[in-house]
Amino acid sequence: MKIGFHGLGPASFPYVNYSLVQLNEFKLATVFPPVSLLGLFSIARSIEKRNNPLIVFGYSRGAIAALRLCRILLQRQIKIHFLYLIDPISYYGQLLRIPSNVEQGFACFQRNGARTPILFGRFGKGIANYVFTNTHQANRFITEQVSLLKNSQPALHEDMVYYSFFEATIPLLSVLREIV
């Protein structure tokens, strides 16, 4: 089962969230907007009924929703086979704790900022600091800071979905296609 969360804002073309929503169309994942805690509990209930490997991913505020879902699933003793975070944005801190039920993962982030004016200052910069609750996780969770895209342009918040699809050390599309 593959579940993802896009960032805040529109999910229609030409906005960046559209690329993630298209994963629904290609049957690569079920993608939600960042949802409330109540919505996450509902998603967790549907996951409990399945017994296949679970991949969770999220972009921007959706990455924070993905982490919250992992914490809910930890309480239910459900393992996350792979957690993929794309430029997570947090309003309340600059440190992300990876729950112990995450077996492996990848996070890509940038520190250049965003084109969107409401994401000014640190709000447009992905979180760079991660804490692992399980000592074995640190070896199985890769973080990647992106400064420039392959076209030599600075990597900004809105570029990170493209980066995760095509330029990352571990491309999201590969993770979604390979793990059944």
Question: What does this protein look like?
Answer:
InterPro entries: AB_hydrolase_fold. Keywords: Hydrolase. This is Alpha/beta hydrolase. GO terms for molecular function: hydrolase activity. This protein is an alpha/beta fold and 180 residues long. The chain has helices at residues 17-25, 37-48, 61-75, 137-140, 160-166, 172-178; strands at 2-5, 30-32, 55-59, 82-86, 95-98, 105-110, 129-132, 141-146. The protein has a 6-stranded parallel beta sheet, sandwiched between helices. A two-stranded parallel sheet has the order 5-7. It is globular. The model has no long low-confidence stretch (mean pLDDT 90).
Attribute tags:
single chain; 180 residues; alpha/beta; Rossmann fold; 30% helix; 21% strand; AB_hydrolase_fold; hydrolase activity
Describe this structure in a few short sentences.
This protein has a single domain (2-178), classed as Rossmann fold (3-Layer(aba) Sandwich).
